[in-house]
Write a structure and sequence with these properties.
Blueprint lengths: L1 E10 L2 E12 L4 E5 L4 H4 L1 H11 L8 E7 L11 H11 L5 H5 L1 E3 L2 E2 L5 E2 L4 H10 L3 E5 L3 H4 L7 E4 L2 H8 L29 H13 L3 E5 L5 H6 L10 H14 L13 E2 L7 H5 E2 L4 E2 L1 H4 L4 E4 L7 H5 L2 H6 L1 E6 L2 E6 L3 E6 L19 H7 L4 H4 L4 E5 L4 H4 L8 H18 L14 H7 L4 H14 L3 H17 L7 H9 L9
Parallel strand pairs: 3-4, 5-8, 8-9, 10-17, 10-18, 11-14, 14-17
Antiparallel strand pairs: 1-2, 2-4, 6-7, 12-13, 15-16
Length: 504
């Protein structure tokens, strides 16, 4: 007799169905797992045996064979413990066979039979919904997986709870979706003294999801400004939250009992490797650009990153997805993020400070910022020089708008864009538009077009630079609640395109 249970094998955010077959036959006592398991899956037999012993369930003196089908699909991770145990319990007639076949199970077993949460509960719930089954998972993973409303989620604390549930002794209630309530951020845009132009650039970038590049002396407030960007961003929509949480679930970042509606803010160190930024490793895990999906990727000391890491950003910025290719895996991750980069003007950082004149200016600045290639620099919609702040200005009282007032305008602009692109797949913000849609949405009036053509000719703009100015101008018009782009909108967009570095 062969008993069956079901689980999943992960390939990126995709969860492939796996049938766990258990056969108990006569022969020398043995417990084997076949079907291309890795070391963690092979060790499941010892954890399952110990968990059953803790429940006073003795294995028969027979040959137990577990097959993970399809056998040519690599099986990795400790989440195979629970489905192996469920299939074995069904083969021993401890739980009904139809109950074991009606669910997708995943979870790691402790030696005492308790269940340990594992990564990937949300993609597993998606797979269970597609196959018309329920999901059986550890209790801490239940609120996360329950966001997939099409699949019933049963969350158990231990293997004994699973047995009591499927035998009808003590049925478990379905899990409810859980949302992590984040504490209000204690920082505010009003904390930044001066830098009104930089605050305006951040508002435009947040409203249209534009990439933003800041250059300024050390201590001018670049990192302080970037840290306050989350305070003016709108919360994730339900669809965006599900997309982002799928990636975070695979990466094991959903450990707070549900998913969060706050936009991701990732800030990797400049010594991070290519695999850490783009994704990779033995299991082709998501990198920082994917973990920042629908959020912000802040890269401080931008020229200090290795040249190979910086150049790999070019394609994901344009397409919004990245293919992590390894010898044993080709995995695609979404990475529609907002890149905010900050850099000093030169190695010493004092090139813009008149009180600390750099003896090598402007050559040192050209050499330092020259580490950023022209094609990559051309992908930044907004570029800004952040001037240093004098210590006299720091003694002045706080001035300017609060994050709440700026966030209200950003949210209104995002709602305008959401309504505009509602029927256009893959387009949610002005930074996403291209092709014929770009020409239609960003068409300026006659005065604005003449001005833009004049600027493009004098600045020697590339086609990409020309289109990025139009996208930024569209966002500025949305912030002004204007239907058509006019000359002032284009003029402001052009002003954020200038930089002391060579124009590309």
């Amino acid at each position: 007799m062969v008993a069956r249970a079901y689980t999943v094998a992960f390939e990126g955010v995709d969860a492939h169905p796996v049938e766990v077959q258990c056969a108990v036959s006569n022969g020398l006592p043995a417990f084997s797992i076949v079907g291309l398991p890795d070391k963690a899956v092979s060790e499941a037999r010892d954890r399952v045996r110990a968990a059953l012993n803790a429940m006073a369930i003795a294995l028969p003196s027979k040959r137990i064979t577990i097959n993970l089908s399809p056998a040519d699909l690599p099986k990795e991770g400790s989440h195979f413990d629970l489905p192996v145990a469920v299939a074995l319990l069904a083969a021993l007639n401890i739980i009904p066979e139809d109950a074991a076949e009606s669910c997708v199970a995943l979870g790691e077993l402790s030696l005492d039979g308790s269940l340990v949460p594992v990564t990937g509960a949300l993609p597993a719930a998606m797979s269970a919904a597609e196959t018309g089954r329920s999901l059986l998972c550890p209790e801490p993973s239940g609120p996360e997986a329950a966001w997939v409303g099409a699949a019933q989620v049963i969350a158990a604390r231990s293997l004994a709870d699973v047995v009591r549930h499927y035998t009808g002794q003590s049925p478990l209630p379905p899990s409810e979706p859980g949302e992590v309530s984040t504490d209000p951020l204690s920082i505010d845009m009003r904390d930044v003294k001066g830098q009104e132009r930089a605050k305006r650039a951040l508002e435009i970038a947040a409203a249209g999801r534009h990439h933003f590049f800041m250059v300024g002396s050390p201590g001018s407030g670049k990192s302080m400004l970037a840290a306050r960007l989350p305070t003016i961003l709108p919360p994730l929509t339900p669809a965006e939250a599900l997309e982002t949480s799928m990636i975070h679930s695979i990466a094991g970042l959903l450990d707070a009992g549900g998913i969060s509606r706050q936009r991701p803010f990732r800030e990797p160190h400049h010594t991070a490797s290519m695999a850490a930024i783009v994704g990779g490793g033995r299991r082709a895990s998501p990198g920082e650009i994917s973990l920042a999906h629908n959020g912000v990727l802040f890269m401080d000391e931008f020229p200090e990153y290795s040249r190979s890491v910086l150049e790999t950003l070019r394609q994901p910025i344009e397409t919004g997805s990245v293919m992590v290719a390894r010898a044993n895996a080709h995995v695609s991750y979404l990475c529609r993020f907002m890149l905010v980069a900050a850099a000093n003007p030169c190695r010493c950082g004092e090139m813009f400070d008149p009180n600390k004149a750099c003896s090598r200016a402007p050559v040192c600045g050209e050499d330092y910022l020259g580490r950023i290639s022209g094609p990559l620099m051309d992908r930044f919609d907004l570029r800004l020089e952040v001037p240093p702040v004098s210590f006299q200005d720091l003694d002045l009282p706080a001035s300017g708008e609060t994050s709440a007032s700026i966030a209200a305008r950003v949210a209104a602009a995002r709602e305008t864009q959401a309504a505009r692109y509602e029927d256009i797949p893959g387009t949610r913000a002005n930074a996403d538009i291209h092709g014929a849609l770009l020409e239609e949405i960003t068409a300026p009036d006659s005065d604005g077009r003449a001005f833009l053509n004049s600027v493009a000719e004098k600045m020697g703009l590339s086609a990409r630079g020309y289109h990025r100015i139009l996208r930024v101008a569209r966002t500025i018009a949305d912030l002004d609640d204007a239907d058509q782009i006019k000359r002032p909108h284009i003029a402001e967009a052009v002003s954020f395109r200038l930089l002391s570095a060579k124009e590309n």
